[in-house]
Amino acid sequence: MALRVTQSMMSNQLIRNINNNMSRLSGWQTQLATGRTINKPSDNPVGITYSLRYRSELQANEQYQSNVDSALSWLEFTDMLIGQIGDIVKRAKELTVQGSTGTNPQVAMDSVANEIVQLKAQLVNIGNSQLAGKYVFNGQTYDKPPYPDVQNAGSALTDEGSVYYEVGIGTDLVINVNGNQLFGRPTEQDNLFQVLDRIANALYSGNKSGAAAELDNLDTRFEKIVSVRSEVGAKTNRVELMQERLLDLELNITRLQSKTEDADIAEVLMRYQTDENVYRASLAMGSRVIMTTLVDFLR
């Protein structure tokens, strides 16, 4: 038996088709406005899982990059300070040689001793250096100065805890150097503060041989400072490599995210125009499908 097609059925079908065409146009308009093919989970259920994963990885990468930047700043600042310490040790050695040789009068030896005292004060100042409000040479207790007393700096023990920065998944890097590594522990013969104190006292008392005897301690301490600086330099190089790796990783993840989310604007425009033509044609066809009724003839 043939199905009787009524005017109401034709009208309902026409409205459904027009609504479908409008829905497709709306989808293309949304993609053109946002520049993305995925604007809600239903657009691409599989793609949205990859998209969320890429976003999570980019956020983690951004945090690692921030950690790397902070670690690099700390290491570069530490390297600068160690360089200044090395320069002071060199100057102290020059003064010690100058004051302990020849026929210097006591006035000249006192003058050299005074400069030695000032060098020690400058070393204490460097030892209490801060970066972003943190004392860089006091381990994990970076909220307290490692050398609060200039006179007794030689007997101070700094915190030897390690400061870690997470620069990658499962990769923690120790970026700090404590004061004991640079200036020496109180029990070490070449503790830099104690050595300078002994040199100054020897010169004040006119004991040239006593001052000269400390030259070996200055040399051994200088070698240790150079060794620590080389370790800092090696870590700096490693962090710079990690920085480059994280930038490359960010670029790769961004490309993958773009392939998953970003819309091909040229293709979207073409499909939009095609569906717009279809929509206009459906409207034109609707004016023919919806035939005139009896009411139209009663006018």
Structure description:
This protein is mainly alpha-helical. Helix content is 69%, strand content 4%. The chain has two domains: 65 residues; 194 residues, f41 fragment of flagellin, N-terminal domain (Up-down Bundle). It contains nine helices and four strands. The strands form two sheets. A two-stranded antiparallel sheet has the order 1-2. A two-stranded antiparallel sheet has the order 3-4. The longest helix is centred in the N-terminal third of the chain and has 56 residues. The radius of gyration is 39 Å and the shape is rod-shaped.
Task: Write a concise synopsis of the structure shown.
The protein is mainly alpha-helical and 299 residues long. The protein has nine helices and four strands.
Short key terms for the protein model shown above:
single chain, 299 residues, mainly alpha, f41 fragment of flagellin, N-terminal domain, two-stranded antiparallel ribbon, two-stranded antiparallel sheet, 9 helices, rod-shaped
**Structural class of the secondary structure composition?**
mainly alpha
Instruction: Write the CATH homologous superfamily of the largest domain.
Output: f41 fragment of flagellin, N-terminal domain
Q: What is the rounded Rg? A: 39 Å
The low-pLDDT segments are none
Taking the sheet with the most strands, its summary is: 2 strands, antiparallel
Order of helices and strands: HHHEEEEHHHHHH
- Reading side by side through the largest sheet, how are the strands ordered? 1-2
Total beta strands: 4
* Highest-level CATH class of the largest domain: Mainly Alpha
Overall number of structural domains:
2
User: How much β-strand is present in the residues?
Assistant: under 5%
The CATH architecture of the largest domain can be named as Up-down Bundle
Average the pLDDT over all residues and give the rounded result. 85
Instruction: Please give the count of helices.
Output: 9
What global shape is seen?
rod-shaped
Distance between the termini: 37 Å
- What fraction, in percent, of the residue positions are helical? 55-70%
**Could you name the CATH topology of the largest domain?**
f41 fragment of flagellin, N-terminal domain
